[in-house]
């Protein structure tokens, strides 16, 4: 009897990890089961936590990363040791680069064996590997330190510029026991994991002085602005300035893309002619041509205002005339307070010119978006999806690929914040199904994933995951038989060109294999009917959209980044 009573007062590493996560409001886990974390997932489910098992750790990691972006609290990915950890590492690096709060928790081999390289099961110094791509990395060796380890991981993932954090849990940790009361006291509920960084008054004044002096102002909203969830203040600020604005792809919808100040259709004009450019949660990286070169005005003709929580971002490519180092929500609040009621609107000559250019470009594109060609081109297919999103603005659009991504970014309007999720800073492919699962889980909204056939290959098996959990996800695969185009030939032999796939692939049958809805669409009208039915039903659906194999362009719209052979050029 004494032994039974003693056992009732003990807890172990498994329970302490879950206690620490739940204490901090984390109830969803994405991962792949296996040694040594299988029982952790079972015990989490027994507690009522939601544990989503994927077919590959990379996709589980992408799910956790976008969960962090959508919720502002770290998404958790759980993997086995060594190979499983490495599979999840890609997503961890992606989260760090894109500033998404995420925690990768991996089981690992024992330290004493790893350090002597004695050949343990899946032996690897995972902490050392993770440090090169994570915002922070921690290892917990003792059960009494689990609370501290989880707390540090949460705070590191969320505070300042968010990012990916690695938490290493050796196998023996889970079985360690300790007094239950002491274990409970060892846990930490993180208070204010992402404290506000209040902007300096002089930084606000400087920024407004530069903005007020502008004759041709431009505001650029980045995904950091969307992450901040300061939607109302951002909209009020943009409208109060009267300035044209453009939104980077995941910032689309902070204001509707149909807003009269939106200059996405006049992007080339505004980037080149603006005299003051205000960046809000956007970085002057390759996506904005580093703020210089042919895309932009002549050196010295443009001034930049930059709002970012990381001071190291300032002056990273060009001189920043008015740096505001602070969180975006606090900055927007301070800007609006300092602007007062009588802020002068941007000059009508400038705004009228931008609006005229936008309307002209939109009018030129409109007929191409109405076609019903067979086989489909990108404009006709995406035009159909554009009309569906306009009719269902709360649908979350997940988008990846080359041409599929680039054309969709400019064709499909977004009307609400955080309703467009895509490849992010690195332009990676493979995020599609992982993002789709997490978006459906975390928001409860229907998801439309529009992916290229090449991109689908990275995560397509997760269609089984979508079907298993009966998620309201409709996946549209733009099938043009290859990467960029399906028409390439092998100049050196009979084997297929390395950019082509099996012609006539029946991608939709993958959904049928798992009990989902399978559709093949050969025209924009077919595609429109199939997607409309999928969104109405909420059933897992996979649509094989047949795109003209000649319709694509090399590397989408970033072909300039794809170097060509000097010898080939001479020929």
Describe what you observe in this structure.
The structure is a single chain. The chain has 571 residues and is α/β, with parallel strands linked by helices. It has three domains: 8-186, Rossmann fold; 201-360, TPP-binding domain (Rossmann fold); 371-546, 3-Layer(aba) Sandwich (Rossmann fold), CATH 3.40.50.970. A six-stranded parallel sheet has the order 3-2-4-5-7-6, sandwiched between helices. Strands 15-14-16-17-19-18 form a six-stranded parallel sheet, sandwiched between helices. β6, α8 (146-158) and β7 (164-170) form a beta-alpha-beta unit. α2 packs parallel to α8 (146-158), α17 (378-391) packs across α18 and α17 runs parallel beside α23. The N and C termini lie far apart (89 Å). The relative contact order is 0.09.
Give descriptors for this structure:
571 residues, alpha/beta, Rossmann fold, 3 domains, 6-stranded parallel β-sheet, 16% strand, globular
Question: Helices and strands in order, then pairings?
Answer:
Elements: H1 2-8, E1 10-12, H2 13-23, E2 28-31, H3 38-46, E3 50-53, H4 57-71, E4 75-79, H5 83-98, E5 102-108, H6 111-115, H7 126-130, E6 136-139, H8 146-158, E7 164-170, H9 171-175, E8 177-179, H10 180-186, H11 201-212, E9 217-221, H12 223-227, H13 231-241, E10 245-247, H14 267-273, E11 276-280, E12 303-308, E13 322-325, H15 328-339, H16 348-365, H17 378-391, E14 396-400, H18 403-411, E15 420-421, H19 432-443, E16 447-452, H20 453-459, H21 463-468, E17 473-479, H22 509-513, E18 517-521, H23 524-537, E19 541-546, H24 566-570
Helix pairs in contact: 2-8, 4-5, 4-19, 11-15, 13-15, 17-18, 17-23
